[in-house]
Specification:
By secondary structure, the protein is α/β, with parallel strands linked by helices. The chain is about 35% helix and about 25% strand. It has 7 helices and 10 strands. It has a 7-stranded mixed beta sheet with strand order 6-2-1-7-8-10-9. The protein is globular.
Length: about 230
């Protein structure tokens, strides 16, 4: 309210209803955008070792990155698929509620400050080349090469109000559900279930899981410690 120079919750509510910019700013402030390249590298390592051999023979691969934030994990997946020879037949849909972070993700421009950590994560995740081959450093920024975006579609999507928009072979929804209450978590799991093909893979964050949801009996643990699941019905 201080930022908008408003005196009460009622005034903020009225401003949100009447002013699109206020609504977008409020959503941006509520969004939690904590991410990094190859975050939790053992997850990506397991994906490379265990999931890639199963999906490599699919004619097309459809992946949904839910709550993609500023895009670091999307670029990580694109790099991994490129190294495994699968990127050309993959379409990645990367969605978030926050239009501002989506614009940052589309740009492919990140601070050079994170590159040391990201390089470490990349190699721990099984990276096969020099990580610096994927970007160009200019002053205090790095620009990831545009070929990593050729099969990525960024779009705004609200997990609470929007519906399924495709059928996917893989859904990555990591460190999103921890910010929802139990009812909303179950609603999102329904959306994920409706969007994931049978035998498709679901990747969740370290502190997330499918137990105690209405869909826990629809999945098998593929790699329990890395929160990788496979839908079997």
């Amino acid at each position: 309210m201080k930022k908008e120079n408003l005196s009460s919750i009622s005034a903020l509510q009225e401003s949100v209803l009447r002013d699109k910019r206020t609504m977008e700013d409020l959503i941006a402030d509520f969004s939690i955008n904590v991410t990094e390249m190859f975050r939790d590298p053992q997850f990506f390592s397991s994906f490379r070792r265990n999931v890639i051999p199963i999906i490599k023979n699919l004619p097309k691969i459809r992946i949904w990155h839910v709550g993609c934030s500023s895009g670091e994990e999307v670029y990580s997946m694109a790099i991994l698929l490129q190294e495994e020879g699968l990127y050309d037949k993959t379409r990645i849909f990367a969605t978030d509620i926050n239009v501002h972070v989506l614009e940052k993700a589309k740009s492919g421009i990140f601070s050079i400050d994170g590159m040391q950590l990201y390089t470490k994560n990349y190699f721990e995740a099984g990276g096969k080349r020099s990580f610096s081959e994927y970007y160009k450093a200019v002053d205090d920024q790095v620009f990831f090469h545009s070929f990593l975006l050729k099969n990525v579609v960024f779009a705004q999507h609200n997990l609470v109000t929007d519906h399924s928009f495709n059928e996917f072979d893989i859904i990555i929804c990591r460190n999103v559900l921890i910010y929802f209450n139990k009812r909303l978590q179950n609603d999102v799991h329904k959306l994920i279930y409706d969007s994931l093909s049978v035998s498709g893979f679901l990747g969740l964050g370290k502190r997330e899981g499918i137990k105690f949801t209405s869909y826990e009996n629809c999945y098998g643990e593929f790699d329990g410690p890395q929160k990788l699941y496979r839908k079997y019905k």
